[in-house]
Amino acid sequence: MPKPKNDDTKSPGICYLVGAGPGDLGLVTLRAKECIEIADVVVYDYLCNSAMLKWAKPDAELIYAGKKSKAHTIPQDELNDLLVAKTREGKVVTRLKGGDPLVFGRGGEEAQELRAAGVRFEFVPGISSSIAGPAYAGIPVTHRACTSQLTIFTGHEDPTKAETSIDYAKIAQADGTKVMLMGVERLEVVTKALREGGAAGKTPVALVRWATTGKQETLTGTLADIAAKASEIDFKAPAVCVIGEVVNLREELNWFETRPLFGKRIVVTRTRSQAGVLSQQLGEMGADVYELPTIRIEKPMNMMQFGECVQDCHKYDWIIFTSPNGVDAFFDLFFKLYHDARAMGGARIAAIGPGTAKKVKEYHLAVDLLPDEYVAESLLKALLEESGSVDNLTFLWVKAEKTRDVIGAGLTEAGGIVDEAIAYRTLPETEDVTGGRQRFLEEGADVITFTSASTVESFLDLKLPLPEKLKIASIGPVTSQTLREHGLYVDIEAEEHDIPGLVKAIRNYFTP
Ligand code: SAH
Question: 121: CA distance to ligand 1 center in Å?
Answer without folding.
Answer: 23
